[in-house]
């Protein structure tokens, strides 16, 4: 990419598909009028030309999210005397924070500085004197050690992102700090001890994925008066959840997952869920029941209580949460029947009830819509009965295969503020190909049915053959009967199929060879018979996938298939290697003998020949009367010739 318009003042070409190397042409030098250069989010590559840092009039420089490479000394940036917004983030650049030019009076004062993913090793010293700085992003670097105290004393700083570094502690003491921060992101470091403070005006606070350990402060909610997003996920916090958390009336995302919190869920958390969009308390030690106080105008989009010690039933008032998309109550001690009262939540995409004490059938008396359902996990409960067609028919999302190019960009998330680019990414744990995996992004294209380890019975419903978007199907450890249906061959997207430990009988259908993406198969511990289909990917699976089926044979099993027994004859025992089929010989002999009885008299006996042809002529006249006309005109010879032409 090259520019040759000397009078050009602004270049705004972000979010395109430009590639190759950057050449400034006639734009560089002191005489350049260029004050804005934004080439972010393209595919530009190679080293940055030194002429970029000779643009003395440049005020805004954004080269983020490209593939630029090389080492940039801070002294080069010092040359940009008028710069106030600089973004070099998310390239393959390395910023040398120690290489400054002492001949220049000072580093230019900037309002926005984004050096994320620039291989920084330290906090640059020039930041101490940045009195205009409003936005600072040093995330995804290699900065070790402590967070300097002066960073909290920057009066105008509103946005600070130090995530994904190797920071271990705060330089203290931090008492009586009146920070102006509204966004503070410290996630993905190694910070430990107690949380030192919460900025009073913060709207976004992310302390997740650190080593903080302590009880949550009893007055924690009083520090979150304006917070929309608050995450303490994946730390070592203990104790109970303070009820003061409900004082955060603007809160839209509360994530306290992956800690060691105990006690009950504060009743007020479910009651004020009209503003709360995400409540994630998974992987703690919370006990008691889920309060049945969800309001009529419940705004929850994600409710994740997985892997706690919760008991009781699924609250009836949860049906008020019409916006609910992700419901994960898995790995608790909930004792209830299938929650049919949630059938009118049409936006549900993910339902996880696995490893509880649910029982009974899953057939709801009235129609169960759930047209957007893409993941359902009912494994390891005591559900029983048959799977009903009408219950599954409304799962439309499993029947439609989205355009792959579009679906790759779609995933389930929660938008914290419509005007700000802050999103909460939903995650879920699923069992795929026999392994428990955590999906950090739930793509809308991903679909899964896991009802293993229950007491379901009867045949597999035919409607499952229409789930052409299905990736995972696990029906193992139930009491399903009948043969493995051939319509499973219609599930062309299927990657994992587990039918093990049931009562299936008959042969493995040949249609399963149509599953080109199948990477995991288990049909062991059934009553299957016959040969495993040969010359297919089915034979690439291990012997364990087919074992304990007494009648199965062929690779990969060691059991060879028996050929049908051959007919024994004396000649083969004599070593002649030949075999006479007397049935064929008898038929041939009879044919030629009968043929000779009829033909021989016609040749050698004249009276027999005349009598024979008269009988033939009479029979033909009776069957084909129109031939009589030919007989009358031309006699018998003409009639015979006509018959021969026919």
TrEMBL record:
InterPro entries reported for this sequence: Leu-rich_rpt, LRR_dom_sf, RLP23-like
Q: What is its main location?
A: membrane
Family of the protein in this entry: Belongs to the RLP family.
- Quote the protein name from its UniProt record: Receptor-like protein 12
Pfam families under this entry? LRR_1, LRR_8
Membrane topology, record value? Single-pass type I membrane protein
Q: Where in the cell is it found?
A: Cell membrane
Q: Which UniProt keywords apply?
A: Cell membrane, Glycoprotein, Leucine-rich repeat, Membrane, Receptor, Repeat, Signal, Transmembrane, Transmembrane helix
Q: Which GO terms describe its cellular component?
A: plasma membrane
**Which PANTHER family does this UniProt record tie to the protein?**
LEUCINE-RICH REPEAT RECEPTOR PROTEIN KINASE EMS1-LIKE-RELATED, LEUCINE-RICH REPEAT RECEPTOR PROTEIN KINASE MSP1-LIKE
Record field: transmembrane? 582-605
